[in-house]
Amino acid sequence: MSTRITTVEQLREYLHVAMQLEHATIPPYLTALYSLRPGTNSDAYHIIRVVAVEEMLHLTLATNMLNAVGGSPDLTAPGFVPSYPAFLPDGETDFQVSLQRFSRQSVQNFLQIERPREAPDEQRRLFHRSAPRAQQLAVAPDEPSMRYYSIGEFYAEIGRGFRYLHQEMGDVLFSGDPARQVTKEYFYSGGGALITVTDLASAEAAIRLISEQGEGYGGRIYGEQRELAHYYRFEQLLLGRYYLAGDQPGQPTGPAFSVDWDSSYPIKQDAHLADYPAGSEFSNAAITFNRGYADFLGLLTEAFTGRPDLLIKAVTVMFRLRDLMTQLVHNPIPGLDGVTAAPTFEMAAVAAVSS
Amino acid sequence: MTAGVMPDALHDPPLNDRPVAGNRADESEDIVIFPQGATQRTDHKKASETVYDVVVVGSGISGSIIANELSRSGKTVLMLEAGPGEDRSLAEYEAFLTRFYAAAAKDNQCPYAPNPNAPMPLSSDAVRIWPGQPDSATYLVRNGPMAWDSTYTRVLGGTTLHWEAKTPRMTPEDFRMRSAFGVGLDWPLTYEEISPFYAQAERELGVSADVETQTFCGITFEPGYVFPMRGIPHSYLDKIVAKGVDGTKVELAGEQYELRVRAFPQARNGIPHPDYNGGKGFVPVGAVSTSQVEEGGRCQGNNNCVPLCPVQAKYNAGKTLAKALQTGCVHFLAQSVASKVIVDPATGRVSGIEVKAYRDPASPRHTTWTMRGHVFVLATNAIENPRLMLASGLASSSGLMGRNLMDHAYLLNWGLLPEVAGTFRGTNCTGGISDLRTGAFRRQQASFAADIHNDGWAWAVGSPYSDLVHMVDQENLFGARLRNALPRRISSQLLLAFMIEVPPDASNRVTVDPAHTDALGNMRPVISYTLPDYTMRGACYARQLAQQLFQRLGAADYTLYDPTDSQYVMYEGQGYVIHGGNHLAGTHIMGASPATSVVDDRQRSWDYENLYLVGGGSMPTIGTSNPTLTLAALCFRSARHIIQQLRTETSLTLTAGAPTGAA
Q1: Is there a single domain that holds both residue A47 and residue A137?
Q2: Which of A43, A53, A244 is nearest residue B91 as measured by Cβ atoms?
């Protein structure tokens, strides 16, 4: 069992995990985002929203890489959506990725997810962790007991794998159907353009974009596309001030803004269907959301396997998912002293019901 | 707080010499951020002690384009805005939205606080005008015979905040109406001459359209041209209407026309065209703020483009202004109402603009300053530009200042389709009938373009709110029945809005009268306006066509022109309600000779060689084209000439050894 990518199959495995990893951050970010009370915390809203949108970009970049090497993205595979709370595989046990309301605590959690970490040396890029205690993400695909030191290191190995295999195989490596590539037309935003992956250079550019936008890999707070890294975006919330280009970490000099930490719905943290009385409106709404989300992942899978135009339809579905989420988040669960409901993102339950 | 952070050419002379303009293709890749503190770089005292290369009055689309182009050439610019204007942040924009959401009457100005020091006209201000009894109750003094109900917005970014963002080019024949049809006036420019500037404007505004659907009525494009973004898709409603309209043949003045539903080009973000700019593509500009936001990169179909796009997917001039301010060469002063254009009798040139600056919109207390520059650009709009000139006693040697006021005449027709057509799914308007925009019939009657409104009867009767009130009060519906009935009713609504051309007419005009002043003592615009028979013949035909189309669609015609409406007009025994389109034009028309026009083809005043009057006011005809794209193209063209003039005059001054800048 290798922790080094030496075959195309291994590379595809890694890229599947990359998709899983990128997606796994979206439910917690969206949960915090939609827990904000409408009409309050505009700055916080937009800061979280930008990061969530960029995670969607990263997910799409990972699928482009996978498609480039002839893989087949599947967002409906069992276990693709983790069961929250879930550990990230960066070797630390001090936090889990969790679905919670917008609060100092959740922002701290986001900083932990995005924090820049480079392994001290080559030997320690991977290390062993025994007896996994909970759901884990981004394990070395061939070696379930091994963990990467950080997400950045995980992507570094993917980059290494691309280079190694390209050296071995030449351009045959990129034998995937170019029509499966999601192009800029179908995914763009104010900054951070989508990269179509057709050769080694574009694959490396995609990896660089993910790493820079995420944690500011290499210690820089702004990436090549002049995008502020996610870690520093979230940090702005704690510092109450925006970063400007040229700023040093921890010392933003942009406009100040205020955060109303109390102005979010007190949702049930890491809610599960079991938290809602069976047959209740809450339970039904949570199931409706989960079904909608499962269908949405199915639609994305279709889009990523040759129908990029379906991403336009997906936009409408995302609006609907937002509405279903807010229905839950805005309603207190009886008997819980004001604690409101939240989506559970339990895809296994949906699969069980539909089979 | 950190106002000094941005490079400031005005206090840092070497910046004037840095490489400018740069590679426009690269520049469009930049994230557009509104520079923090950019609206606070100077104050009135400091500004009044500076001689700028250019003083621009107005921060709307015309002023912003000119300021951006000039500052990119290293020219120093002072921009004056009558209304409020802080650094454009998302928080500020969202405050506009909150105000709009909460407003009971959702008119064009509802997102903004009333401001007696720079008042904005409201459509609802218009009342029936009786002969000899002008209405002076609100900001615009309406002299009649028709009540003028068009509006404009006086805040940073101007009327582009509430515009609908349709951007059709004018047809080549629109530029030579007099020669082609014996009606109206000829431009001193041809379609071919303005065409490259149209392309520039389409880039700046971010136009979504497909060349294949826009090549008609003589409109042509450079070989290989594509719009920055692909056309916004047709709404389902468009497709339903197309079933009845496509292939309909009509005969007009002996010629046959075949009608079809055609997309409108729009300045709202869609799917970027990969072939744009020689294959470099296009990066849409989304929401602008002092911090990076990720919003508005694509239209979401929220369907309240008017009065305000919730995500800034629709172009507004703040996007161009942010770029201008990024150069560091632009100073901005808000709450500064230009009150007088000062001419130096010795040189015959404009020497300054007098400005009344106020702190509190609720108080008329103000200070008065004179701002100086080498060139002055009036970029307010076709009502405020001539108002300012006439209030300054500058009627122009042609006597045409303020004359030939134009707007489009809108005739609304509304009906209920026999099926649910998805009405109210946005954007406001995606398609319409444009085949009668030109033709030999224009010798006798006005041309028009018809919009299919995706917001149903909103404009005609105030849907969906009016439907709700009617269902509750008149039909006694409530609960589940009401919830089901309302969407069904409004999603079958069809509104065809005919935008009919209005030719220039010297008696339609803006004047001033010392008897009518605003809170700051500035003379208010006095509007005299009526629709010529030429336009009414077009309206009469449009009404008949609408009835015919409703019949083909099986739509029940609910159109009712209320004789008590302020916009009610009679023509040949029939009554119509005709609204304005907020398409302000004319009033300082361009022409080939100082005897017959106010400005030349560069929009430069014939009378004062360092004064430019820019915007819709310069247009001698408006055809059936929403004027913003054309006036933007004119401003790009003028910016080139202003840069050229500054170069020539500066080198002359240097040769003569005279000191520049008397400050």
Answers
A1: yes
A2: A43
- Chain B: give the shortest CA distance to residue A342, in Å: 25
Q: Is A99 within a domain?
A: yes
CATH of the domain at A33: 1.20.1260.10
Cα(B579)–Cα(B6) distance, integer angstroms: 45
Give B233 to chain A, closest Cα distance, Å. Answer: 11
Name which of B6, B90, B294, B326 to mutate to probe chain A: the one with the most chain A Cβ atoms within 10 A of its Cβ: B294
User: Does the pLDDT of residue B371 top 80, yes or no?
Assistant: yes
B3 in reach of chain A (CB within 8 A): no
- As for how many domains chain A has, the answer is 2
Are the beta carbons of A189 and B292 separated by less than 8 Å? no
Cβ contact A257–B91 (<8 Å): yes
The answer on A316 and A220 residing in a single domain is no
In a domain, A165, yes or no: yes
Q: State which of A239, A265, A282 marks the end of a domain.
A: A239
| Cβ contact, residue pair B295, A49, below 8 Å | yes
Residues A167, A211 share a domain: yes
Crossing angle of helices A8-24 and A42-68, in 10° steps, is: 170
In B454-544, which ranges are E strands? 493-500, 509-517, 523-529
Measure the CA–CA gap between B175 and B622, rounded to whole angstroms.
Answer: 9
**Residue A226: per-residue pLDDT:** 65
- Note the pLDDT of residue A112: 85
A265 is a domain residue: no
* Separation CA B63–CA B77 (nearest Å): 10
For residues A92 and A215, membership in a common domain is answered with yes
B27 touches chain A (CB under 8 A): no
Degrees (nearest 5) of the Cα angle A256, A258, A262? 165
Q: Cβ A255–B89 below 8 Å, yes or no? A: yes
Q: Is B331 exposed, middle or buried (0-12, 13-18, 19+ CB in 10 A)?
A: buried
Q: How many residues are present in chain B?
A: 663
Question: Is the bond into B386 cis (omega within 30 degrees of 0)?
Answer: no
Least Cα distance to B607 among B348, B388, B406, B355 occurs for B348
- Are the Cβ atoms of B281 and A53 closer than 8 angstroms? no
> Are residues A167 and A20 part of one domain?
yes
Domain span holding position A307: 273-354
- Asked if residue A197 and residue A108 are part of one domain, the reply reads yes
Closest CA–CA distance from residue B234 to any residue of chain A (Å): 14
Q: What CA–CA distance (Å, rounded) separates B83 from A302?
A: 50
ipTM: 0.81
Residue B23 pLDDT: 33
Residue B437 pLDDT > 60: yes
Per-run averaged pLDDT (10 residues), chain A, 355 residues: 79 92 94 94 92 91 97 94 79 78 96 70 50 45 63 86 96 96 77 84 93 66 73 94 88 92 96 93 95 97 96 91 96 92 92 62
Min Cα separation A56/chain B (Å)? 12
Q: Which of A189, A256, A257 is facing B294, going by the closest CB pair?
A: A189
CB spacing of A42 vs B90 below 8 angstroms:
yes
Assess B230–A contact: CB distance below 8 Å, yes or no.
yes
Are A204 and A319 part of one and the same domain?
A: no
Percent of chain B residues topping a pLDDT of 70: 94
User: Does A286 lie in the same domain as A173?
Assistant: no
Distance from CA of B230 to the nearest CA of A (A): 9
Examine the fold and report which residue of A213, A239, A265 is the final residue of a domain before the chain moves on. A239
The string of pLDDT tens digits covering residues B35-64 is: 888 999 999 999 999 999 999 999 999 999
Contact flag A255-B87 (C-beta cutoff 8 Å): yes
Q: Is B300 in the A-facing interface, judged by CB distances under 8 Å?
A: yes
B36 CB within 8 Å of a chain A CB: yes
pLDDT given at position A122:
52
Write down the pLDDT at residue B330: 97
Six-digit token string for B284: 């849409």
Angle, in degrees to the nearest 10, between helices A26-35 and A8-24: 10
pLDDT in tens, B529-560: 999 999 999 999 999 999 999 999 999 999 99
Across the interface, do B272 and A184 touch by the CB < 8 Å criterion?
yes
Q: Is residue A248 part of a domain?
A: no
